[in-house]
Design a protein that fits this description.
Blueprint: H1 2-35, H2 44-71, H3 74-92, H4 98-112, H5 115-126, H6 132-160, H7 164-182, H8 190-196, H9 213-237, H10 240-246, H11 255-280, H12 283-304, H13 309-322, H14 326-335, H15 342-355, H16 357-393
Helix pairs in contact: 1-4, 1-5, 1-6, 1-7, 1-11, 2-3, 2-4, 2-15, 3-4, 3-5, 3-7, 5-6, 5-14, 5-15, 6-7, 6-11, 6-14, 9-14, 9-15, 9-16, 11-12, 11-13, 12-13, 12-16, 14-15
């Protein structure tokens, strides 16, 4: 039991640093781009280029670390991924051009892809069937506060220097390297160890997720349920200044402050959704409740958020709470599949959701010319919610399901 508790603590701290490093670009985006010579009114294009570089790397990294986690073990992922993204974030503090920035975020994204899936898989397999939802909720909810830490660190660093955004990247990389010391005492999953020596069981084959109709359905429904979360992060939160301007606000929202409020609420929503799934004894019903809250938050954001800066931030809080179902989402991703492909599925699914930012932003940009910034964002957001609700109907319930099985 002590080993399980240590796994929860280390996975939670790891995800905390993961979220800090994942979102630090959105937090320091405007001042960092200005620092390397990009004018404020020309930042949207470079922003999406850099963000998409990171998100594409998350897709590739999800496959890399997921298959490695099933072939070599969950611990190997936790060590390898954190070394890569920590060094990449330190390198990010030295960039001076947009291509350099995009390259640094690419390698950071490649490393960040393994942290959440590896941690959630390890925790899920270390706890019993009835209580693992509490463990994964602690990991995902506490980890999300990494965004809050990122805002506070970046704001403090930039108070003293216009180049303080570089310090924020250095701190993120340093935190990751410090975590390596904690991970030395974490034990490998017992469930994984049981099948490790069995050469007759194929482990870590990403393409095996698509060789069975049942696995394809489980995999796709999990991913589609999570897409509205990162639509909200990429379109409504990260580009808050541009969105506020498009809504005609006299006071333009600060991106870092928006992230602070949104992610603080997302952490609370994550805890609430995880506890709700345990109390209802159903992952699906908890997901439905929070998808409905997310749907309600969109008109609040677009119609009431424009009224004042206070209302915009308040709307971001409601949006964050609704999309807090990320906690249940990552739990379901691990519970859907057998031990031989669990790390692969649990690592790739969240990163495919993160990677959905690419087609979502492409759709947003394609519709922007005819519908405007606000209209395009509203249509794309509504579409992701409809698709998520349809996917939820086909999702397999996994509460209390034993994870001691193979595909």
């Amino acid at each position: 039991m002590r080993g399980a508790r240590l796994a929860v603590v280390v996975a939670a701290l790891g995800y905390f640093v993961d979220i800090y490093d994942l979102l630090i670009f959105g937090i320091v985006r405007a001042p960092s781009l200005k620092s390397i010579g990009i004018a404020a009114d020309a930042q949207l294009g470079p922003t999406q280029w850099i963000l998409n570089s990171q998100m594409i790397a998350l897709l590739l990294g999800g496959i890399l670390w997921g298959t490695l986690g099933d072939k070599r073990g969950r611990i190997s992922v936790l060590f390898g991924s954190i070394i890569l993204y920590s060094l990449a974030n330190i390198a990010n503090g030295f960039v001076h051009t947009v291509p350099q920035y995009a390259a640094a975020r690419f390698f950071a994204g490649l490393g960040l892809a393994g942290e959440l899936g590896g941690g959630i898989t390890l925790v899920s397999e270390s706890l019993d069937d009835k209580t693992r939802g509490y463990g994964t909720t602690i990991v995902s909810s506490f980890g999300i506060f990494g965004a809050v830490a990122g805002v506070l660190v970046a704001k403090l660093a930039m108070q003293h220097s216009s180049e303080g955004w570089r310090t924020a990247y250095f701190i993120g990389g340093g935190l990751g390297l410090a975590l390596l010391l904690l991970r030395v005492g974490v034990l490998e999953s017992g469930v994984f160890e049981k099948i490790k020596a069995d050469t007759s069981i194929q482990r870590g084959n990403f393409f095996s997720l698509f060789t069975s109709r049942s696995r394809i359905q489980r995999y796709l429904t999990v991913i589609l349920v999570g897409v509205p979360i990162w639509y909200a992060v990429a379109i409504l939160v990260t580009t808050a200044p541009e969105m506020g301007k498009a809504m005609g606000m006299t006071q333009v929202p600060d991106a870092a402050i928006t992230i602070l409020f949104n992610y603080a609420a997302l952490a609370i929503g994550g805890f609430a959704s995880g506890i709700l799934s345990q109390r209802l004894r159903s992952r699906k019903r908890a997901l439905l409740v929070f998808l409905i809250i997310t749907a309600i938050s969109l008109p609040i954001y677009f119609l009431l958020g424009r009224e004042s800066l206070f209302m915009f931030y308040a709307a971001s809080v409601v949006l964050g709470f609704g999309t807090g179902y990320w906690s249940v989402f990552v739990t379901v991703a691990a519970e859907q599949f057998g031990t031989n492909v669990r790390a692969t599925a649990a690592t790739t699914a969240p990163n495919f959701v993160r990677g959905s930012v690419v087609p979502v932003t492409l759709a947003f940009n394609a519709l922007k010319g005819s519908l405007g910034v606000v209209g395009s964002a509203a249509v794309v957001g509504s579409a992701t919610l409809v698709i998520a609700l349809l996917a939820l109907a086909g999702l397999t319930e996994t509460f209390g399901k034993s994870l001691d099985f193979v595909e």
